[in-house]
Request: fold
Amino acid sequence: MGRARIKDFDGRICVVTGAASGIGRAAAIELAGKGARLALCDRNPDALAETARECAARAASGSTAGAATKSFVQAFDITSTEATEAFAAAVFAELGVPEAVFHVAGISIWGAIDVMPQSDWERLIDINLMGTVRVVRAFVPAMISAGRPGALAMVSSAAGLIGMPWHSAYSATKFGVRGIAEVLRFDLESKQISIHVVTPGAVDTPLVKSLEISGVDTSDPAVAKAQQQFSRHAVSPEQAAAKMIAGVTKGKYIIQTSPDIALAFAAQRYFPPAYSLAMRLLNRKLMRVARDAGIDA
Reply:
């Protein structure tokens, strides 16, 4: 049996989590333009409603105008298993079993191991890792039972590929997402469901602008300058979403949204000395920023 993959989204039922902003919002709007029937969720009801309006406008003006573009929108907190399962049940009732799930929802908190409190670890794990588990468990069994080709794309991170400084807690969750994908890509191959793990680097989203760093005042000029330098390397949410959607249609397993992360991942695998040097230099730079901000790091 050949590997099943979805080659287009016209008329297909697609779930997008984290659709109120960033990559999730951009993905929802692009899928609307491709004629997808959308099920959108996020914890921010006002921003989610705005995304739904933009999706309707894109669908009306897209090349597939006139195709079935019915959408279902629901705001809830992905840390709730009951709410996630209720959303899935509502999607099944309103639209049917989805052919593609784009799980984008997540948060980012950085911090040194001796500074980050237990509560930040637990919050990251509950949203990023257990949120992924909740979405997978809510949708995949029904997709298997449907017996038709499907796709599950889960957003990990560059921090799910490489050892970035001050990312121990965040990386634990994003390596975990990658681990789920690594197993499911084989478990679900015979079920005609393709698995895709998306590993963005810097993306110019509200998540970057509101970045939390445990024990660090992110309004400090030294930290703000470092964030500006980080943002200069960022791709737009639209670029990242387009890469993700194109990667799914091409059947790619690891989908990278920027060339710098692809280079770092290749160095990690094929030229470890260069990778180790790059990580040490990045760590030193971050420590200098911390010292400039008056932080004992």
Notes: The CA atoms of residues 22 and 292 lie 30 Å apart. The beta strands are 13-17, 37-42, 72-75, 100-103, 109-110, 150-155, 193-199, 212-213, 254-256. The first strand starts at residue 13 and ends at 17. The mean pLDDT is 88.
